[in-house]
Amino acid sequence: MSFKIGTYSIKIKTYTDKDIGFDDNKKYSNLIFQLYQKVFHIYFVPIFPTEKFWKIKNIVTNKDAETDPLLRTRLNLIELKKKSPFWSYSGSMILSLPIILLIGFVIYSLGRTEVKKINKELDKNKLNKEIVEKIKKPNLSDTYYIKFIEMIPKKDINGKPKGFKKGDREILKYNLISFSNDSIELILMEKPFYFTKSITLKNKVKISKQDLINISDHYKTINAYETIKEKSEIKAEAIFSIDRIKNIKTEN
Fold first, then answer.
1. Rounded to whole angstroms, how far apart are CA atoms 171 and 184?
2. Which of 104, 142, 165, 151 is nearest to 244 (CA)?
3. How far is CA 189 from the centre of its chain?
4. What is the pLDDT of residues 152-210, one digit of tens each?
5. pTM score
6. Phi and psi of 17, rounded to 5°?
7. Using CA atoms, how far apart are residues 187 and 203, in angstroms rounded to an integer?
8. Which residues are CB-contacts of 137 (< 8 A; sequence separation ≥ 6)?
9. Where are the domains of the chain?
10. CA angle, 124 as apex, 119 and 125 as ends, to 5°?
């Protein structure tokens, strides 16, 4: 099957001598001026316009007429002002439609992602404010859910310390048993058995309110565990972050 491409021309407007501006010049009164648009096509679907050109006919003899410098100047001015018709770009718009839809989908998806990110950040900030408020104004019926990450020491190829890698994760449940103006005492309700080989979680911990506020939105270490050494080397450290604080009397 042959692939039909090429150009064709369509008349887009016909002008009289008066339209050209020769109201008083009878020299051009027997002429009509036809402006054509040439377009590039694929299977006769116009892709884009290429050029415009004029056909000038004598309405008396029905023959093509010649131009002169004055007429050519007038015609050139009209041609420059005349925009290519909208339909001459129809093929380009059809071909670019998938790209436009793809760009629109990407923009829409990015917008939704950004909105979700903003909403998530707003929810996080709201939750953090609630957590801080409960730390500042504690209640004996408060239950703390604290995220825990085991941090296992790493060594380089020479056996020297090289930071930490993350180990097991858990959400620990603590009940508030007492508090003062500047500290809160918590008791661990359930101790995950698989942490006992690397660290020892304390059953009761007394933590300053400021330290608790510090882990309300970031992971940090607190005095809630004891390290275990093996051949004088610490087996693991730990970092904590408050997930939520629930009051069993006021919240379901």
1. 19
2. 142
3. 43
4. 888 888 878 788 888 878 889 999 999 999 999 999 987 776 556 778 889 999 999 99
5. 0.52
6. -60, -35
7. 6
8. none
9. 5-84, 138-247
10. 100
